[in-house]
UniProtKB/TrEMBL annotation:
<dbReference type="InterPro" id="IPR058488">
    <property type="entry name" value="DUF8175"/>
</dbReference>
<feature type="signal peptide">
    <location>
        <begin position="1"/>
        <end position="17"/>
    </location>
</feature>
<keyword id="KW-0732">Signal</keyword>
<dbReference type="Pfam" id="PF26526">
    <property type="entry name" value="DUF8175"/>
</dbReference>
<protein>
    <recommendedName>
        <fullName>DUF8175 domain-containing protein</fullName>
    </recommendedName>
</protein>
<feature type="domain" description="DUF8175">
    <location>
        <begin position="16"/>
        <end position="198"/>
    </location>
</feature>
Amino acid sequence: MRAALLALALVAGCATQTSPPAPQPRLTWQDFHGIRLPLSNTDGPRTLDNDRAEGFARTQQGALLAALHIAVRASSHWGPAVFEPTITEQVTGPDADQLLEKSRTQYEESRQEAGLPPGSPLGKAFVDEEAYRWQTYTPDAATVDIVSAGPDPRGTTVRATTRVQVVWQNGDWRVVAPLGGDWGNAATELKSLDGYTRFEG
């Protein structure tokens, strides 16, 4: 649960300008190991293969979808076949190497504790991506807060908001690695959705 709720990044430092929410084209939804993720036939991802997601439009919604899809897949929860190439190819910034090493360590510790064979995913997450709030957007860089929700051990719904920065590099959006390579530095508990825009559907 924690890995899924914290599977998004917090980074600042790229000069951007504020922007109001853009009109949101229609979204469809697809299950990713228990997490419902939004898709757009205009903004991406254009390629979904081997649990990877690539090819996002250079638009505000393309940046939003990239932030969500890439950061979720960079979690150690899904196993090295997913998080390693995601981080290596779709995450950038000075802390990207730390993120990869910490994800490997976290995965191995969790895998052994669960008694799973090497390379196995750690299980489903049962998390909903509920809402978002823009901080900044330009065609070169964007920062957005994303709200994830899921049950705690008592069955009560808990929410976390995570600030994600993406940058446009080599023809696609890339997530900037979280501070210190630790997703936990990115997320904070959220009590209210006031001020956030709910995802369609």
